[in-house]
Write a structure and sequence with these properties.
CATH architecture: 3-Layer(aba) Sandwich
EC number: 3.5.99.6
Bound molecules: 2-amino-2-deoxy-6-O-phosphono-alpha-D-glucopyranose
Enzyme class: hydrolase
Number of helices: 8
CATH topology: Rossmann fold
Strand order of the largest sheet: 1-10-9-6-2-3-5
Helix content: 25-40%
Oligomer: single chain
Pfam family, one: Glucosamine_iso
GO molecular function: glucosamine-6-phosphate deaminase activity
Catalytic activity: alpha-D-glucosamine 6-phosphate + H2O = beta-D-fructose 6-phosphate + NH4(+)
Largest sheet: 7 strands, parallel
């Protein structure tokens, strides 16, 4: 794993956006894996700015998101589909039909998982995956204990994850208890991975990622087995390291 140290959240967002823009501009066709949560918001803002100023086009880009809450439709303002439209897709020239996110309101969620995995394979897999990390080491919604062999699957969210994400809902009770997520094996199939880590509250996770053991009790540790991972971490996340 390679690590790039940056000053703060703003610089991380700028650097990650520049990296994505370069890929978008130089690839004939790009399968981009995207993440939600607070961490990539600044990156998406930078992509939008660049699209407005420099007309970077996303017409040949296909996106695949990591995860979605079970039980929320795409119109629900807490769904990750809504987040992606709002934070990025509505502001760039991407074809909405080329933006894939697992459906949290599918009538058959097991089938939805299988279909999503198949869709990724049929498209030839992800070229560049953007990742954030939970403070318990989760990636996507793969909580501690998830098998490294897992494909897209349904998960029960850890209480700490629901608490961390409750800031977006009116109450903790409203945070869904289940989600659908790309599995660890799905994520590991990406050709390249960019992991964004910002803020003091992520410093323990960063430290464990760099120095802890590779095992399923800390899902992100699997990334140490991937040949092409770059961590972009800011000073606050590195401080306690
Ligand atoms: C969420 C998402 C993850 C995200 C992580 C960190 O639960 N499912 O994809 O990377 O938790 O979120 P944040 O960036 O808000 O700290």
């Amino acid at each position: 794993m390679k690590m790039i140290e940056v000053k703060d959240y703003q610089e991380m967002s700028k650097r990650v956006a520049e990296y994505i823009i370069e890929k978008v501009r130089t690839s004939k066709k790009l399968n981009l894996g995207l993440a939600t949560g607070g961490t990539p918001v600044g990156t998406y803002t930078n992509l939008i700015e660049d699209h407005k100023q420099n007309y970077t086009s996303y017409q040949d880009v296909t996106t695949f998101n990591l995860d979605e809450y079970v039980g929320l439709s795409g119109d629900d303002s807490n769904s990750y589909r809504y987040y992606m439209n709002d934070q990025l897709f509505d502001h760039i020239d991407i074809h909405k039909s080329n933006t894939y996110i697992p459906r949290g309101d599918a009538s058959d969620m097991q089938k939805e998982c299988l279909d999503y995995e198949k869709l990724l394979t049929e498209h030839g897999g992800i070229d560049l995956q953007i990742l954030g990390i939970g403070s318990n080491g989760h990636i996507g919604f793969n909580e501690p204990g998830t098998s490294f062999d897992s494909n897209t699957h349904l998960v029960e969210l850890a209480p700490s994850t629901r608490e961390a994400n409750a800031r977006y809902f009116s109450s903790l009770e409203e945070v869904p208890t289940k989600a659908v997520t790309m599995g660890i094996a799905t994520i590991m199939k990406s050709k390249e991975i960019l992991l964004l880590i910002s803020g003091e509250n992520k410093s323990e996770a960063l430290s464990q990622l760099l120095h802890g053991e590779v095992n399923e009790s800390f899902p992100a540790s699997v990334l140490r087995n991937h040949p092409y991972v770059t961590i972009i971490a800011d000073k606050a996340a590195i401080a306690a390291e």
